[in-house]
Structures are given as structure tokens and as C-alpha cells.
UniProtKB/TrEMBL annotation:
Region spans: Disordered: 30-111, 554-594
Domain of life: Bacteria
Gene3D superfamilies named among the record's database cross-references: Quinoprotein alcohol dehydrogenase-like superfamily (2.140.10.10)
Signal peptide bounds: 1-31
Protein known as: PQQ-binding-like beta-propeller repeat protein
The keyword Signal belongs to this UniProt entry's keyword annotation: yes
Similarity annotation: Belongs to the bacterial PQQ dehydrogenase family.
Amino acid sequence: MTMTRQLTRSGSATALATILALTASPLAALAQETQPAPQETPTPAPADADGTTVQLAPAEGPDTPDDATGTAASDPTSDSFAPGTEDQPGALAASEPAEQPQVGSDWPFWGGGPMATRFSPLDQITPDNVDGLEKIWTYRTGDMPSGKTEGKYSPEGTPLKVGDALYICSAMNILSSVDAKTGEERWRYDPKVAPEAIPYGASCRGVAYYKTPDAPDDQACATRIIEGTLDARLVAVDAKTGEPCADFGDNGSVDLWAGIGEKVPGWYAVTAPPAIVRGIAVTGAQVKDGQAEDAPSGVIRGYDAVTGELAWAWDLGNPELTGAPPEGETYTRGTPNMWTQATGDEELGLVYLPLGNSSVDYYAGNRSEAENQWSTSLVALDVTTGKPVWQFQTVRKDVWDYDLGSQATLIDFPGKDGGGTTPAILLPSKQGDIYILDRATGEPLVPIEEITAPKGGVEGDAYADTQPSSGYHTLRKDDLTEADMWGITPLDQLFCRIAFRQAAYDGIYTHPTADRHWIEYPGYNGGSDWGSVAVDTDKGIIVANYNDVPNHNRLIPREEADKRNLKPINEKQNESEGGSKAEGAGDPQAGSPYAIDVNAGWRAPVTGIPCKQPPLGGIRAIDLATGKTLWDRPLGTARRNGPWGIPSFIPLSIGTPNNGGSMVSKGGLIFIAAATDNLIRAIDEKTGETLWSDVLPAGGQANPILYEQDGRDYLVIQAGGHHFMETPVGDYYIAYALPEE
């Protein structure tokens, strides 16, 4: 199987309408959060020959060896894992898998069902009748920016639907439940998150639902909603009433700052819901990028979903620490973190963690062996012990902020010539590669290829000589050329062409430079980001939307950074700057020899027009069995884009940057918003043709869901907007359905 590199290229970039439309494409950022972190584990075995997959422990369970030397894994029933000790918490997870709610009439997980496929088996809405969709209800959370939060909202919310209720979180973590049929609010709970806690933006991507085993229905918090907050708490409320769960932590709240160190608002935050596996709520946190080597730890922790008790901690820099640090100490600082959504595997008792890069993204010379070992990896963790079982690293010595942003999807991967299926995990990446791995071992089910990395950069031998590349499929396009540079006028195009010639660029994995700019392509937002992919498990089709924008970066020598007064968030900094700029724009990277400037999306000065010709984003259908492209098209029209930010209102499909993901239905439709044109659309899964669209009252940078209530299928999307994407901000959740007969 060969990598598919086909992608639509715009041959009409010189057409006036297209040029006018694209010039103000909001690419300033598709803002990225910081990276994930490891946990307490035996000293990791060295990477295998290709440096990609490392088997750390057999997947059978805690009684089998957990490292390459055959050392027995910790027994959760032994004295060393006895519950109640502060530094060695007990293994609180159930030893047997519990029955999981399934997607269908409900949407009980952030990714739809427990496999995170974002596929609905509902088929009431079809290509033949989708143009009859009408707006049924609109719910407004009331959470809008003002004062200190003005210009800092990027909600990115996906609701859950369980029973007859939707469960929603707003940008500032206000929880609410609404009637799935009418959109009427039933309850709301405000955890009172302070504006200072906002990192890049105020975002809550969703919540987790948990049913307490064997609890009677009338018991308080028999079913509960758990969310992570921007001020680093886990909050649990009763799913029926919205009242805090008194048995969870301190009256419904667990402080995630415990063990992290000095509390610096905005540096450590949670934007993704926890993954609950065998009764353990597993969470990481966003650590704001580019601030300092001595950043908060990226520790991953598991908490009892009923009591909030710490079950285990995985600190990659201190594998002996399995619980809370001793008083006065912290988890290892500066390690990779997990800011995005994990995936639970109830059957195997594993949780799959997409880890990010180190706290200094663009300089690797000072990194520890542990950072090099774990950064930008998918790690399978045994949820009963908190110990890694295997890891798969997608970038070696990552200096491009290519952290794993997408949630991994569990699939049954078809064998060759109809030879059965293998339980597998599908992993998208920001550089565009899509990997297929054995779910239990992490071994690639399709061969991994190698890319020889270019020479150059500021670190010499600190770089990796080669980088892994998927032999299954990549969303990545051909390398940029000078001919890809363009503009609204000949002068704009000339500026971009000169900048291209002056920059260091030798294709993907061009190393960072300080004496001149270098081009990073794809940029740090894609390929695939947090919106993830959808998989039609009936037809065997992957649906992947993607970004196709470069970044124009330069390392800033420390002397120059000091003259520019670039300081990390924990030092004196204007409070109003928090969350107001894109990651990478003048980040200090304190402790390293260089700060960093990133022109996210590479826009020309003054006009803000992109230097790369369109399309800047697209959507693709891929055959699951073969990895071959079925169709590919630009995603996003020019209706809201134009020179100097003036909307052109041209409905031309040009392909804009996008933030958010899709879902696919058995009815043969792909539903997606994500682009900067404020449209939600239904796309024919067979052809890629848009069959229906509607204008949203704010940006649709979120993932849609589909559910059934009282015999009627409902499509719901958050129209919350996104300040980095420069789309209008709102507080809307909107439901669509076919007319009742």
C-alpha cells in the first residue's frame, strides 16, 4: 500500500474572485494548546530499531511483565499498591470491563460511542431528503465574553445526549442540561471560573457521562456529569439535577493544581473531558506552549469517578512517583502533556493518550531523555495500574509543535484478501499521516516508511536523522514551491515570493533557524487536529477534514528576546494579554537559548493575506481497507473572506482553514461546520457533493452530533465562534430535523 498524496490544488488562484475571497482567510491560528505528559512507570525500555513503537508491557494485565527486562508489574492487591497511602494510591479500577452505552438514539461519548468513530447508525436523514432539514430549536447558554474575557472565546463544544437530555458546557465551563426534543433548559451549574484562568482561549470541548455501578436510580449522583475546567479542576454534578456530587472530592470538585506547583492562572488548564475507563476518570491538562522549560508538569492522573480519589499518577520524569508528590515537591516540570481527548478501551482496560511536545516546542537541545522518549507519541496506559503498556512515536525530537491533537479511533481493521479483522487503533497526526496500529501492542499494521530529515538548523546533531511516515495514507501535499506563492495584487505576490526565496525550506521537517525565517509545512495545525476523523464502520470509509497552511517561523536569539522584553507567563506580564494572541507569536521559551516567532498560516503584513495559494483546507474520504483516496475537495467558501477582512459574499468553494471535525451517518451523509464561512453543511458520502447547508449565527468551530428522540433524528451543532479563527463568537446550540409528518 502506498501513501496517497493526491490533493486538490487550485488552478484558478489568479482568478480575481478567488483572490479577493481568500485574502483575508482567518488562519491566525487554529490555536494549539500545549502537550501531553507521561506518568509513573518503570524506567522505559529504549526505543526499538526504528524508534517508533516500543512495547513496554504486555497488554494482558498487571500480573504480566511490564518492561523489556521482564520485571513483574505492580499487583494492585499487593501492599505496595494498598489503597489509602498518600504516595502509593490504590488501584481503584474495576478488574472487569463494564457495559458501555452505545451510540444510536444517544450520543453518550465525546466521540459518539466508546470507539470514538463519530459514526451514527441513524438513517432517517438521507441524501434524498436532507434539503428538507429545518431549524427546530436554539438554546443559548448566556455565556458571552465581556470585560476581561473580551476577545478570548473559542468554545469548541460538543454536547452529549443520554436519555432525553443533552449535556453541555460553555466556554467558561458553565454546565447545563437541556431537553433533547425542545432545547428547554432543565438545570445549569456555574463552577465560577475566573477570567484569569483563560489560557489561549476560553474552551470547553465537552463533558463525560458516568453511571455509578449498582446505584439505585433515586440515589444522588447515580448518574453524573464530569468536566475539566480552565482553572484546573475536575467537577462532578448530578446528571438529573445539576447539583454538585457531595461524594466526589471536596463537595463535587477535585483540585488538579495539587502537586503541580506555583499556581499561575492560564498556564495550566483543562479543555477536554476526561476519558472514563473501568471507573477511572483519566485526565491530562493543557500547559501553555512556548513559555519556559520549567513549565508545569504534564502528569497524567486517574481519579475514581465516584469518590474523586486519586487512583494513580504517571509522571514520565519520575517513574517512582505513582501518587501525590511529597509535601513541598511537584511532579516533574516541563514534561510533555496531553491537552486533547484520550480514548478508553473498556475491554482491554487501556486508555490511549495522544501526547504532545515538550514545553519548549522549537528547541530540543536541553531536553531530557524522558522528554525525547515520550514526546509526540500515542501511549497506551493500563488503567488499573497507571503504567504504560506501549507507545508509538510519530515525530522524533519534535521541534515543530507537531503534538498529537486528534483523538484516536478504535476500529476493526480488515486483513488482506478478506482475511478477517484485527482490533486496531486509527491515529491521525498534524503532519497529515494516518497510522493503523494493533490495539493491544501498538505495532503498525501497515508498514512505516522513513523520511530523511533535511540538514541545517541551529542544533546540529541534536536533530533526528529520519522521521517515520505512514505507509497507509497521508493528507500531506507536495512540498511548496515559489509558484505556490500568491497575492491579491502583483506586489503582494512579489512580497511572498521574495519571502519564500529568503526563507530556509527543504520540505517537511525543515529545522528551525535563527539567522532567517524557515517555512514549516504543514503548519502546526494540520493535517488533523482536535476535531479528529470520522469512520463509517458500515461502509469502511474514513472522513478526514484537514488544514493545508504553512507557518513562517524564526527562532529569536536570547539577547534579542530580552530586548523585546519577552517574558514567560509566570513573570510580570500584562494581564490583558492572556489568551489574546496566537501561540508562537513572540513566545519567550525561557531557559532555552531562543524565543520563537511564528507567523501562523503565513500571512503577509498589512493586508493579512495568505502567502500560499488556495485551497487552505479540505475534506477527504478514504477507503479504510486500502488507504486509497475516494474523493477530495476544498472545505469552506469565500462568503466571509475578502481583502482586509471585508466579506466578499462570494459562495465560491475555495477551501478555508478549519477547526473542528465531522460526523458521518448510516444515512450516507457527512455533517460538518468547522470552516470560516459560518456554514454547517451536509456532504454526500459517496461523491463529496454538498447537498444542504445553513448559515449559523456564529462560527461553527465544533463537532456536530446526531441523535434520535421520540422517533425523530436531530442534528445539533454549537455555533460558538472562535477568536483565533476570526469567526463571530456566540453562545448558540442549534438543532435541525426533518419536518414532522
